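SEQUENCE WITH STRUCTURE:
===
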Amino acid sequence: MGQSKTTLFLDHVVAAARPVFERIIAVDRAGAKPLAIDTIFEEPHQFESPAFGVARALADAPGPSFILAVDFPLISSDVLAFLRSRFEASSSSMLVPVWDGTPQVLCAGYRTCVAPLLAGRITAGQYDLQGLLEETEVEFIDEETLRAQFRGEPLVSVNTPAELAAVKRMR
């Protein structure tokens, strides 16, 4: 991206999450400096994948958790409260919203039973979090439901300079 997504979006994501969740913890790569909020660190690894951060978060979690990546610059407290409520009412191992046709596994509820499945995938060299959806019980929140409830693009994620420019135009 050419810029740190943490520097760009962390403050907004934390501000959206703070009214909804009791405990907010950042997960960063091994060797990184702690952030302005409580920070835990991934185990050292040589591969690039958010699977390592999710695994670390679940290992630290005393119970069900909501995983939220920093690259959702338009996320709101209202959307997070809606997702949290749906997750708490669900008996599924994961609650995953779908946006732009893609399950948003980095803006999703995870029960601790997912941790060993993810650990097994990592051990097997399977770092794709989307593959995890095939191995556990998932409740999906479809995009139409989300668009009916919320305006704008709350679950748009930013991974490229072009996406960043588009988000800046939306604000």
